[in-house]
């Protein structure tokens, strides 16, 4: 059972998210918080498997809360799945740098939301193509800073291909279809990329793919 803590300052949004994710046998909501500081307090008490975190909140916003969770000895291994809107485009990369493990748009459907929760709880990073495009837009406005040639030189041609598809925001299953690999083989390649590029999670691989110029 995946134990979820929902963090959003709007009560109706929290209620809606609870209704969406709990309509299944393997996810339960153990708590709700209206801001990041409350999420920290409840997180320490309830020890959820995953935070579902809004970005725009009073008292403590989602980016600050994510960084605080990553710095807390009791919570730092708990994934943070960020909820965002197109209006939050400039905050997406900041959330990555703070330590968020995945990113969802608030208009996501019920099945996709539950799938993303399962993916994040399993230690992977759901990043939708829409979010990947937002990240690319933000990165394009930043000063150029390419990934080191030495890092890229350690990658095989197939690993570069997989990194390119990760940068596009594709899941392991989608990468498998594009590159004619099984989902398990695609997952293995992603794990190798994380190790070779010293990336924390899939979201950082998206950033690295854009930095490396693999995704235009």
UniProtKB/TrEMBL annotation:
Listed InterPro entries: CheY-like_superfamily (IPR011006), NreC/VraR/RcsB-like_REC (IPR058245), Sig_transdc_resp-reg_C-effctor (IPR016032), Sig_transdc_resp-reg_receiver (IPR001789), Tscrpt_reg_LuxR_C (IPR000792), WalR-like (IPR039420)
Modified residues (4-aspartylphosphate): 54
Residue ranges annotated for the Response regulatory domain, each copy included: 3-121
Residues annotated as domain HTH luxR-type: 148-213
SMART domains: HTH_LUXR, REC
Keyword GTP-binding in record: no
Name the record gives this protein: DNA-binding response regulator
